[in-house]
Design brief:
By secondary structure, the protein is α/β, with parallel strands linked by helices. Helix content is about 45%, strand content about 20%. The strands form 2 sheets. It has a 5-stranded parallel β-sheet with strand order 2-7-1-8-9, with helices on both faces. It has a 4-stranded mixed β-sheet with strand order 4-3-6-5. Helix 1 packs across helix 7. Bound molecules: guanosine-5'-monophosphate. The site of guanosine-5'-monophosphate has 14 residues, from strand 5 and strand 6.
Length: about 200
């Protein structure tokens, strides 16, 4: 059976990655969004097991120790990681899997799975990024400051990704994400490997 596509989405907080994730899910019905484990505090409106698996630092370290994570990284003082088992299961079942992860985790996944599709999402400017982070209203001033600094360093890694989406218009960004999946689905080598005679 043909394996699912592994899709990596990265970009600074506030760039609008969730718009892209929604567009990809719409383009690939049945795609699986990987729920990461994190040690950061739950935000208002978030749900444990839906947005993240909120775990203690001890529980996270246990996941690392037992090889339970596909990748992991520390980001503004908290650990984030992708539970390996559900991702590998879904890919094996031919289901596309979407990872929303930062660049160090993305690097680990690209090294293990060079065929992964990688998309970097950025805001049109840092001023716009700051505005979006403030409009969220869920971050403290210190958190916003740290995320902006981190956002700048994340953007320096943008060229390790195959695709770049500048999210200045939600609909345009969503259309670009969908187009990437369409193009990836048309890759000749995939057709050839899945085709029996002609
Ligand atoms: P937030 O705290 O805003 O939800 O996420 C902060 C950053 O952590 C985002 O850039 C997000 O992509 C990244 N992130 C979320 N889950 C994971 C994960 O499982 N692994 C890695 N490496 N980064 C993650």
């Amino acid at each position: 059976m043909k394996k699912g596509k592994l899709i990596i989405i990265s970009g600074p907080s506030g760039a609008g990655k969730s718009t892209i994730v929604h567009a990809l899910m719409a383009q690939s019905p049945g795609a699986f969004f990987s729920v990461s484990a994190t040690t950061r505090a739950i935000r208002p409106g978030e749900e444990d097991g839906v947005d993240y698996l909120f775990v203690t630092r001890e529980a996270f370290q246990e996941l690392i120790r037992t090889d339970g994570l596909l990748e992991w990284a520390e980001y503004v003082g908290n650990y984030y990681g992708t539970p390996a088992k559900p991702v590998l299961e879904k890919l094996g079942q031919g289901v596309d899997v979407i990872l929303d992860i930062e660049s160090r985790g993305a690097r680990q996944v690209m090294d293990k799975y060079p065929e992964a599709i990688s998309i970097f999402v950025c805001a049109p400017s840092f001023a716009e990024l700051e505005k979006r982070l403030r409009n969220r209203g869920t971050n403290t001033e210190e958190d916003i400051r740290r995320r902006l600094i981190k956002g700048r360093s994340e953007c320096e890694k943008a060229d390790m990704y195959t695709y770049l989406i500048v999210n200045d218009d939600r609909d345009k960004a969503a259309a670009e994400a969908a187009a990437i999946l369409v193009a990836e689905g048309c890759k000749n080598k995939d057709h050839l490997s899945g085709r029996k005679g002609g």
